[in-house]
Fold:
Amino acid sequence: MVDVILTVIIGIMLSIIPYMTEKSIVFGVRTPPEYRDSEVIIRSRKTYVVSVLVITLILSAVQVLIIPQSFVLLLSIFPLFVVLIAFFVYLPLHYAIERTKKSENWADKSNQSVSATFVSGRSNPFPWVYAVPGFMVLLAIFIIGIMDYNNMPQVLATHFGANGQPNQYSAKSIGTVFFTGFLGIGLTVGMTLLAYPISISSFRVDSSSNAALERSVIFRSRMTRMILIMPVFIDLTMMISEFEIWGLIGHVQTTLILILAPIFAMFALVLSVTLITGQAGSNLRMVSGADGAPGITGYKDSIKSASTKDDDSSWRAGVIYFNKNDARFMVPKRFGVGYTLNFAHPGSIAIIAAILCVPIILILALPH
Structure:
């Protein structure tokens, strides 16, 4: 049932993406204001939303009615199926709008240059305090584990089957007792390090108005804080899992609820911030710059302006950013809410390598 709930949540989050992105970006294609309500765009939005919701409904029904609950691994990857299929729904819609833009010469007819106003956040203080709760949970894991280490059984149940019974055991050691805690350290440190470049990343807006700039500043600030606070939810789940392995709490249905509750709380946080803010602050209605006030006063960011006719060529399928002339290695997404990598930047390669290598190194290095 938990897998079904995750499938539904992810499906709903994916279905609303077209209404969360920047108003000037439609399915990964930069669109002039006069064409944003064209027939192809309205039809594409409806097609995407309906298709993703129907796919989510079908996959959820398959999970409940067809696949036996004992097939835990298969059931657990259904949310990934939703993500994959939703992308293949998006792809033809992106290319359809891109072809229409070229065939009808939207860029030439609008005679609109894309504003390349870059706002850097290097002078803003890093909100490190949001990362403290996650590290406090990790500290609690190790303190409790050290204090209770001698009382733990010599053989620990490290995995439980669908029937709730242990089906995998490991001899007690520093590695088996604190393995989840070590993973938590890697995750929390990694997300904290990831939040820093986001907090200082420059962004580009279509308009030089203070309101547009302030929306982007608010978006960057909220994304940074959200990434910093997210590890506390994951670390809480890890801590409860550790308590179960150590024998401090029993393995019953309420334990599973306790383990998953922080994850669902994290999903609720992400969904709320996403809906309220939108990509680049596109859903923010009231900002001080909207009525002529200096919307970015107090930030003291460095602002550089330039313009270009169109920047679609730097995006592959509207989702993969590849621009050797852009010094940023993290940029706001075109389809979705949050940030993606500039795959032409060496820093992006380093991040991908770290994501792939760190878990493998931990598994190989820790004693079993």
Observations:
- The CA atoms of residues 14 and 86 lie 7 Å apart.
